[in-house]
Amino acid sequence: GDPSYTIAVIGDGSLTGGMAYEGLNNAGQHKKNLIVILNDNRMSISRNVGAMARYLSSIRLQPWYRRLKRGTERALSKIPVLGKPIGSVLKRSKSKVKHVMYRHTIFDKLGLSYYGPVDGHNMEELTNALNTVKQSKDPALLHVVTKKGKGYKYAEDDSASYHGVGSFNIDTGEPISSDKNFSAVFGEKLCELAQVDERVCAVTAAMRTGTGLVDFSKQYRDRFFDVGIAEEHAVTFAAGLAVNGLLPVFAVYSTFLQR
Question: Hey, what domains does the chain have and what are their CATH numbers?
Answer without folding.
Answer: 6-145 (no CATH), 182-256 (3.40.50.970)
